[in-house]
Specification:
With about 300 residues, the protein is α+β, with helices and mostly antiparallel strands. Helices cover about 10% and strands about 30% of the residues.
């Protein structure tokens, strides 16, 4: 095996298993959750739209992308920490941004105005948007952010497991979305406290049918929510994760990146997500290229 193949193999292992500089070689676990009496969310009707406040450390890989020009909490989009120095997000988050270096990343926070002692702040060293991203139809809506320096993992900051093509979605259960986006359909500002909601994966053929999205769903999309609506991601949740749990396990996998939707929480208009499985090799390519460059 030559050095190039070896380094790519290391990168593959890092993305799939969550190995990182100081992150313990595990991903997809939520250590703070075991500290709580974490009750099942039986009632999701509390007003993400239709979500509930997440407990501190509930989703330790979710990050907030902030822009100084945005009023209030400065929150622009969500993202997921997939290695110690790379964040997965949506390409469309940067459509209105002229200079990505003014955007900063908050890791390990649940309440944005009171991020707490476990939170970390990073600048963006490199932005990689998919080369075939189309802002008009939101195709290939995926991006990677390289952080200015690796994070330090702690109970509030952990790596996400990214679902690769070998994982069968039918073998996963208990799917969730989380974000600081609007909590009501016409709300203008983002939420200060991270919201979470349980959702169902919706068959893509049904989602693309004539009285649903009528052919606007791409082959690299997933749909999640409920046929009747009421619970959904909304403005400001973009770039955040769609997460499903491995059966008979504590591990969560990121299967999607929040991309778009027609309104928020409408019937037959569920949230649309970019599939991480579809773009898994693309992520490896770009993170692997950076790994190789840094090795010499």
């Amino acid at each position: 095996m030559n050095w190039l193949s070896f380094l790519v193999l290391l990168t593959v292992a890092g993305l799939a298993q969550g190995t990182g500089d100081n992150c313990g070689g595990l991903c997809g676990l939520r250590p703070m959750v075991y500290e709580y009496e974490y009750m099942d969310h039986v009632n999701n009707s509390i007003r993400i739209v239709g979500g509930t406040d997440a407990k501190s450390g509930a989703w330790p890989w979710i990050v907030s992308l902030k822009h100084p020009a945005i009023p209030g909490t400065r929150h622009l989009c969500g993202g997921s920490l997939i290695t110690a120095d790379w964040v997965l997000t949506a390409a469309h988050c940067f459509d209105p941004i002229r200079k990505f270096d003014v955007v900063y990343v908050v890791i390990g926070a649940t309440q944005l105005t009171k991020p707490g002692p476990g939170a970390q702040l990073r600048r963006i060293k490199k932005l990689v948007r998919h080369e075939y991203y189309n802002k008009n139809d939101k195709s290939n809506d995926i991006a990677l952010l390289q952080l200015s320096k690796p994070v330090e993992c702690n109970p509030y900051t952990q790596l996400a497991c990214v679902a690769d093509p070998t994982i069968r979605l039918s073998d996963l259960q208990n799917c969730w979305v989380a974000g600081w986006g609007a909590t009501a359909v016409r709300a203008q500002k983002s939420s200060d406290v991270l919201q979470e909601a349980e959702v169902q994966l919706i068959d893509v053929q049904l989602c693309n049918s004539s009285d649903w999205y009528a052919g606007k769903i791409h082959t690299h999309n997933l749909c999640a929510g409920y046929p009747e609506g009421n619970i959904d991601t909304c403005q400001g949740d973009s770039g955040g994760p769609l997460m499903c749990q491995e059966k008979n396990s504590d591990y969560f996998w990121i299967v999607g990146v929040t991309s778009w939707g027609r309104g928020c929480a409408r019937a037959k208009r569920p949230g649309v997500y970019t599939s991480t499985q579809y773009f898994y090799d693309w992520m490896l390519l770009h993170i692997g290229m950076e790994t190789i460059k840094n090795a010499f």
